[in-house]
Amino acid sequence: MAVPIKSAGAQAETERWMEMLHERYEECLDTLSAETVALEASSRHTDSDGTEWIYHVSLYSEDSAGLDLSNPVDSVLEAWTREGGATAQHPTE
Description:
The protein is an alpha+beta fold. The chain has three helices and three strands. The chain has a three-stranded antiparallel β-sheet.
């Protein structure tokens, strides 16, 4: 999934989100095996025209139950996504 970050508010929200991922890195790692995730990665990129993007990739097994909302990190991710994440626009896939 690639999401363009188009406003200053969205940019600040992305900063907050990426900071949370770094601060809670070990906690994030602990969720992956229970969710049968082989790979999960988030990154940011700025195009030459100044457009900033956030990229998120997840590889789950077919039998994965997905996010465990009883887990605090997964609960935060679900809420962030539901609220529009970095932007209320639909992602470009």
